[in-house]
Amino acid sequence: MSTEASAIPQFKEISSPDPVLEIHDLTKRFPGVLANDHISFEVRAGETHGLLGENGAGKSTLAECIFGYYKPDSGSFKLNGNAVSFDNPTDALHAGIGMVHQHFSLIESFTVLENVLLGYRPSSEGLKSSNVEARFTQLLEVYGVHIDIDARVSQLSVGELQWVEILKALIYDVDLLILDEPTAVLTPQETDRLFQALERMLSEGVSIILITHKLREVMEVTDRVTVLRRGKLVGTVNTEDVTMTDLSRMMVGREIETLCRSNQVVNGDPVLEVQGLRALNDRGQLKLKNVNFTVSEGEILGLAGVSGNGQKELFEVLVGVRRGEKGEIIFDGKNITGTLPNARISFGIGYIPDDRQRTGLVGGFSIGENLILGRQWEPIFRRGLFTSQDSINKFAKESIAAFEIDSPSHHRLVRQLSGGNQQKVIIARETSKSLRLLLANQPTRGLDVGAIEYVTRKLLELRDSGVGILLASEDLEELMNLSDRIAVIFKGEIVDIIPCADANIIEIGLLMSGAKSGSQ
Ligand SMILES: Nc1ncnc2c1ncn2[C@@H]1O[C@H](COP(=O)(O)OP(=O)(O)OP(=O)(O)O)[C@@H](O)[C@H]1O
Ligand SMILES: [Mg+2]
Q1: Could you tell me the pTM of the whole model?
Q2: Are 482 and 457 in contact (CB under 8 A)?
Q3: Residue 123 pLDDT more than 60?
Q4: How far is the CA of 29 from the centre of ligand 1 (A)?
């Protein structure tokens, strides 16, 4: 080294804060998959560190290795400068690492409080189980979350579930909190609240690893970002040095297109007519008051609304898994109000539910079995009285290829797939049959930018081929790009239906908040 060079002060080194976590050369393999391939990076004390990558890139696996849920095949960690190795998550918690998992770990039939107590691990920081309830109640208050701790988990919305998971992770004092796609199921308003909560945690000395597919969030809240691609480290960058396009190129290795519907005007016959629909939720509360709208052939009707305003109940009534109190559902001119879900599937109605783990998939079934769920009686999957394994295998292989589901085989259990790839299984199942109407509730939730491009292309293709689509999305920009008209739901009523050409995001936002009543 020249004397000149050594005379230059090393500002970067001196000013960079100590790392809270150092990951060195970490490798984790599953049968047939190298999920993490010699990964090294560090998380600095006091920073929010984004972890990005396509579906199946290895983000959750890496996080679960840090948290002690998986044992890495090789590699090492340092926490606050000390070498650590965890045999299980309890060790990690005691050492000061908390985690909010991508998949909910709550037991549906238990109450919120029972779940919180169940997750309580004795001996941590002298926290007594009798104090856990008080601490949890305090956290609900501090973070302004209104959830009844005696409600059964099965009665909570997915957004509420996510808050329980987040606050549960904060019961212990942690130095590092890992959040695996915490905003995938949150509304934009809830996301803002979460980010305020994260700021509060940072000010209390917690460092954060945030896994997300939403690049806007990455730009907004992270200090640095580490990108993975197919199990390998692409690099770590300062957020302020990059654009969203740079990040998506690092993740996917190509440019991503934002797709919009064609301007072709729809004049098709109505596929779905909903008249005077009224329905209660599981708690007996009135969630749909008097819902009226039509979806025509070749039309995407966007459904905008803050989650909890009746969207879930509306989709469930349309699919036939919830009974309406009043009102009629007309499909292709026929009244199908009292028909069963299976009959509706056979009429050509597809359904992408907003919550893949609860209703969309059976985790303990293989990809192949999940791909034909609800369709197993269709003649193409039968040979006489029996299911035809050959045709199921063929269909599964074709779907995996067509939808780029990242798995070595269709025999793999769905719960072993990455979150985004689970979502692709549902989309493959629901869009590969002969459809007249697709009911899509948050279909791009949890998908990476490349997969979103794929799904939106699929929705537009279906629309152009004459399928009517009811599309709910919390991403208003996505809704504006894809929908022909947008219906805004507020407190169980459609307050307005606006052709997209005349709509603007601000007006829709106001309608969603109830601040403006519609023209209807
Ligand atoms: N328990 C498991 N058994 C076998 N393979 C697994 C298991 N968990 C993950 N994998 C595989 O490891 C790879 C990485 O998965 P991982 O869940 O870490 O991806 P991810 O980056 O979190 O993706 P997503 O954004 O979709 O959540 C995938 O190919 C996945 O199928
Ligand atoms: Mg994941």
Answers
A1: 0.78
A2: no
A3: no
A4: 10
